[in-house]
Write a structure and sequence with these properties.
single chain; 394 residues; alpha/beta; seven-stranded parallel β-sheet; 40% helix; disordered N terminus
Length: 394
């Protein structure tokens, strides 16, 4: 993207700010935002991170880079009005106490309740990082109840996103929905960013291993991540190519869209897939894979799992859905298939089985695209620049 310009470090002083970053999942502060938080600190700012869980390793990682942690009551899912009112009041009180002059919120509830609380606390410099509008804004969210919930969320976004701060969005579909819902009056405040970026030091490229092809899917075990379609396609391909392997890595989810454990057990028993459980370090599994697959029809922002696979140097097969399709140039670093289509998914994966060189060629192209578009350092420079937190170039 043209906006991801190289900005040299500078000894020129930048105005010091106290920045509050608000999330709905504490672990994400270390897993997805640590580089951004450190960049804020390195640019001379005092940073406080707000999250609902007191997760010891995350709090320790934040402390190591000089970021304080403030716990907040917040349920990640659900629309319990009393619970959400408690979240709003608690955020207002903690923002009054910590007194930041800049607030950045990401994911739905922090954006809505965090930015409204920040406005009530008199904080004028308020920014939102829309990592994906989520299930309510997907094609699957049908029916009167979900339509009413989507309309309510749109109105709440409209209230929360008032002001002059930046509204960062990961993909054009989210940007279009925000425009259509009039969530942001001044459209110049909407700034596209290419996802959360990927750390190439943490995810180095690894040669595609020799031997039988291994197709890896990494995701929470939700139906709309395309888990069943992957298992269906895998079963068909295993019948024709018994040496091919199809692996699923990810944690079970308690939500209503979860894939049941009995389904995973059945697919394993049938020989269609291997279930690898869950992990805190996906790198060894990516290194052992041949092709990365994510046939998701969940309303993604830009899937971090795909970016990590691209940095590792893996070809990608993904669905033609917002966020997912933003990572693949069809026919260059992978294939884009229609969502909910196990037939098309099987055809795409079979191409790698029949042409072993394809995974190497497309994997190399994935790495080139990742370095050009999704470098976390460039993404963070853009965010800091737009929020007025980047030290000026000498």
């Amino acid at each position: 993207m043209d906006q991801l310009v190289e900005i040299r470090p500078s000894a020129v002083a930048v105005e010091r700010h106290r920045v509050a970053v608000i999330c709905s999942y504490t672990i994400s502060l270390a897993n997805f935002r640590l580089k951004l938080l450190k960049a804020m600190v390195d640019n001379g700012h005092e940073v406080v991170a707000f999250g609902p869980e007191r997760h010891g390793p995350t709090i320790a990682a934040l402390s190591e880079i000089g970021v304080d942690f403030v716990p907040i009551p917040m349920a990640r899912a659900g629309l319990n009005p009393l619970q959400d009112a408690r979240t709003l009041v608690a955020l207002w009180a903690r923002l009054r106490k910590t007194a930041p002059d800049v607030v950045l919120c990401y994911t739905m509830k922090p954006i809505i309740y965090g930015l409204i609380a920040a406005r009530l606390a008199g904080i004028e410099d308020r920014h939102a990082l829309v990592t994906g509008l989520g299930y309510l804004f997907s094609e699957d969210a049908r029916g009167m109840r979900l339509s009413a919930m989507r309309a309510l969320a749109t109105r709440l976004y409209r209230v929360a996103l008032g002001g002059d701060g930046r509204v960062f969005v990961y993909n054009e579909a989210d940007s279009q929905d925000m425009r259509a819902g009039r969530m942001v009056e001044d459209l110049s405040r909407i700034v596209p960013v290419p996802g959360s970026g990927v750390d190439f030091d943490h995810f180095p490229s690894v040669s595609v291993p020799a031997g039988d092809p291994v197709f890896l899917l990494v995701a929470r075990l939700l139906r709309n991540k395309g888990i069943a379609e992957f298992a269906d396609a895998a079963g068909r391909l295993r019948a024709r190519h018994p040496n091919a392997r199809f692996q699923i890595l990810g944690r079970f989810d308690p939500g209503p869209l979860a894939v049941a454990r009995r389904d995973i057990d059945r697919w394993v028993a049938e020989g269609a897939i291997e279930y690898l459980g869950e992990t805190d370090d996906v790198r060894p599994f990516l290194a052992a894979s041949t092709v990365f697959v994510l046939p998701s029809y969940y309303r993604e922002g830009i899937p971090r799992s795909i970016l990590e696979a691209m940095a590792t140097g893996r070809a990608v097969v993904t669905a033609d859905t917002p966020g997912c399709r933003d990572t693949v140039i069809d026919g260059e670093n992978g294939f884009i298939v229609p969502p909910r289509d196990p037939d098309a998914l099987a055809v795409a994966m079979e191409r790698f089985i029949e042409d072993p060189l394809l995974s190497w060629q497309m994997g190399r192209r994935s790495l080139e695209i990742a370095r050009a578009r999704f470098d976390v350092e460039a993404v963070n420079r853009l965010l800091l620049k737009e929020m007025g937190l980047l030290a000026p170039a000498a």
